[in-house]
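Researcher: Structure for this, please.
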Amino acid sequence: MVISIEGLSTALVGAYGSNTAETKTLDSIAACGIVLDQCYLDSRNLDQMLISLWTGQHAMVREHCMSSGSSKLHDPVAGDVVAGETLWHVLERSGHAVVFVTDCPKTAALAEKCGCSRVLLVEAAVPTQPAEEVMLCAAMSLFSAAAEAMEQLDTESSSTKLCWIHTRGLYQPWDAPLDLRARFADSDDPDPPSEVGPPQMVVDQQTDPDLVVGWIQVAGAQASVLDQGIELLRDFIDQLDNDWSWCILGIDAYPLGELGRIGRDDGAMESRALGTHHLQVAAIFSPEPELPIGWRVDQICQLPDVAVSIAELCGIRLCGIELYSDEHDGSSDSSNAIALWGRSQLGAPEDQSAMQWNHVHQLACLVEGEQSWLRTPAWSMRTKGPEAGPDNELLFVQPDDHWEISEVGSRCRDVLEQLVEVRTKFIEAAKVGRRDLLPKLDELHCNLLR
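Model: Predicted structure, token format:
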């Protein structure tokens, strides 16, 4: 069971230390599961996020192959020729039962193009006002449809079954009941907004802080609605004579005042600032049988690692991809093969410092047009201008400065210069799918005590 929720940030999940929302179900899954503490997007394009989750390949591989002209990579968004297999291809070829349930038409079409033969699009009514009770919220239609789909899967003989639920989550109207919203307000707070949003607003010195706090309270209530939907699904699964592993993903975090906005900027994606807190993924696994006690994985990873972890829970292996030239005759050519980027995150964690982590888990990077973002255990760096070089980079201490408020680049020129070089090496490795080529970091980039 995989549930991917757009807009659900770690700031709305109790298992990540938040008290903004009540997520008792997610927290209970995390308590006996595996929590990835430093998992990040490899693209801010939703289609590319999902393709990374279904292939185990970094988004930069696809971007490079698309721009090279002579070779093409299987990319349903661009309609390119098939040059590799997705999670759906592997499962269905093996005779396993699968279903993809979503409330997003675009995502439903993408799943079909990526090889999922059973796609259920749930078209719930668009709410114009808060629901009178949680069970009447629009999100419950999706979880109800998913339960019916799982009941049908349960009748099939396949030993391995995958039900993937994808919801627009917080990027849909916020119809949490008014009384649930009020539970997140203090006694001396104004009533939270009664609109269904989701809100889109700039936060500056003229913005009423009570309005910002109010919308954050509504977001907390909406996250709790989703959590209760997952609880109902878990109760339903308990009635089935099957053991299910779980993966809960919160992707594409909904901005709640960070970087001066509530909601995403309607402008071009390339103009949106890259913030670490917006790129972080809430990723929780619960293998079957249930762990006696859960653990947290501190090592740095990205969506391709989640893909390989999901495949492991399904008992299958994702393969590398092959690049085909435009004149390729379709025959297999091992010289065109690219190694799999993702690595499973389901192993027991090692009690060691970041300096001792495997070097492939010391870095995360995202490139978007002229913007880029890089994360090491001790630092995050993002571009502030179109020209490459230390003068056009912003540097923040991590994990201390999670919200990236205090820029320290002018005081740490040596760090900036080295990270610019590290980013170049990451991009070179990602373009050819060779994660083993990532550079090994020295103490300067890993030591949290400085």
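Researcher: Any notable elements?
Model: The chain is about 30% helix and 15% strand. The mean pLDDT is 87.
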